[in-house]
Amino acid sequence: MGMSLAFHIVFAAVGISLPVLMAISEALYLDTGRPVFLELAKRWSRGAAVLFAVGAVSGTVLSFELGLLWPGFMAKSGAIIGMPFSLEGFAFFTEAIFLGLFLMGWNRLPPLVHWCCGVLVALSGILSGIFVVTANAWMNTPAGFKIVDGKISEIDPIAAMLNPAASHEVVHMTLAAFIATGFAVAAIHAFFLLRDRRNTFHRNALGIALALACTSAPLQMVSGDFSARSVAKLQPAKLAAMEALYQTQTSAPLQLGGIPDDESRTTHYAITIPRGLSLLSTHDANSKVVGLEQFPRNDWPNVRLVHWSFDLMVLAGSVLFVLSIAIGWLVWRHRGVPDNKWILRALVAAGPLGFIAVEAGWAVTELGRQPWIIYGVMRTQEAVTPMSRIAIPFAIFTLIYVFLSVTVVLLLRRQFIQTEAPGSELVTKNV
Amino acid sequence: MFELIVAGFMFAALIFYAVTGDADYGGGIWDLVATGPRADAQRSTIERAIGPIWEADHVWLILIVVILFTGFPPAFAAMMTALNIPFTLMLIGIVLRGSAFIFRKYDVKSEQVKRRWGMLFGAASFFTPFIQGVALGALSTGQIHVVDGHVVSGFFAGWLTPFALSCGVFALALFAFLSATYLTADPSTEPDVQNDFRLRALWSGAALAPIAFVVFITSRQGSPEMHHGLTQWWAPFLVGTTLVFALAALTSLWLRRFALARIAAIAEVTLILGGWSVAQYPKLITPDVTIFNAAAPEITLRLLTYALVAGAIVLFPSLFFLFRVFKGKHS
To answer: Could you give the number of structural domains in chain A?
Structure first.
């Protein structure tokens, strides 16, 4: 399941963001009438089509997989947290309908109606992402029910949906999707722009992708800060693992990198910033931060993986943040899409960073929750299918996702890379 | 009360899935067996017909699943445990069908590569509705036992019986018939190809009768409750009406009244699934799990009902728009 989700999160992130890019591009076309934006919208919409088809298939697999692999989890929590999934079903439906209209309706719909379909695709995509993340947040901060004598009672699906972690997870994930896709798309077009600096197709594509990515990245810093403080409050064991903090202490230092050692309860070779952690987790440099020692040993997540994933996410995110600021400055100075050789090279190199951050962040939230599937309520072990040879279904689903990923990568390669970009001819028309 | 409403929505979603999503699988079946001088024309007709809509059609299945696990969580858990193997096979079919279809469409235009993806698309389209029929049949065999929320009959109960397997074959024929009927009525179909599909619809429609008879015979042993249901006082009315629509569909196909044939075929499928669920009512998994004993708490069902109503209000106009743009008369 973890594997499936790790794949799905990438499809989903691109699936959420590409429609945004394509809607922006079509809006620019409607506004300026320049065919390059139309071509771009079409090109991106084909990418969105591939991802949506795979997303639809992969979403089906996931919805069944919940039951096939975790019947225990579903039997208990379906009534509580099924709600966002049902709403997500409708959001997904709307997305499917309007994407169909968008893709096949270029010649059948008036331009403005067609563009509205694109906007609806983007909105419902974002909305379905929000619903699903809400359900994940619930696993971190379960709410909306009571357990009396081992029985679940007083179920309140609305409270479950609006659980304490929902707001920060939703914002963080949506921005992450924009950033990761924005920079990945920017990297592709920067690569081609390096080869042919006069290509307006790639230049405009880069501009739109950067506009999305570079406005989201600084916002993500704020959201990250908000998330860290929420986790400190809601899931102190996770925060302690993220920061590899074993001892509860006031004025806790921030530890970057290093090798956490559960036996000696220390983190070796880390770069420490005095009082950093207290400052980050509560905005008060002298506050007390709870360490892992407060929790029974068998309630600890895998400290090394969680800590390293967290540092990786922050590192990748920070690089993108710095890049965004640099690009923002260049755009402000030169009034145009930056085409400096070094910036383009940096963008190509930074292409995968967004997705690395997404995967690492996903690892933090999932592994950081272990050994619980529902934090503090149900252990992962209790939820798994009673199938005796559990490895087989897990292996099958992993294979399915490897297959899907290869499919997507190959198709996107064909769509974006191996076909000639029309920009060169357009240069004469548009400049 | 709300459990019945939610079950009603689930049933409606099942019907919609059958007449849209499963019909798209039928398209894949005809793609696989496309023959004659117009094989390529048949394939491209199928591709044009299902291209814009198959994803939306497919979402009905996701909707059924989410309604099931929100409204009837223990039933969902039990089904996914007892039918783990057929459902996993079905998912593989779904994955291969969907990805082969988009691959064929967006991949390079090399004929050989296209043919290979087309083959996979067809084979997966063939397999998926069959296994869905098997799984649905297995739920009414009475061989899946659930005690205290735990499946005690293992992973092979029900779905390997002759009854379940004949349900699979029946589903296959039914959706092949439905799809061929749609293709005759699709606005983009050309006259020659239209006649090809007309003949296919007639053949597969006629083949439904003997297969249905086999399902009925095997149900005596394989699904005593279903058999009992189908021999109740109301059964002749239901079977009779279904038969009338089936004959109406075939006659309209014969007379080339394709729009009419499409309506009759949809009614036929609806009645067949309706008959199945009436005979099954109120059981979700015969004999232990019912709509009532698997229902989620009232508050969940009530909120789910609101969500479903609100969703339907958004959904149906959008769907109507989609089908009008792509399936309405070309202007």
So the answer is: 1
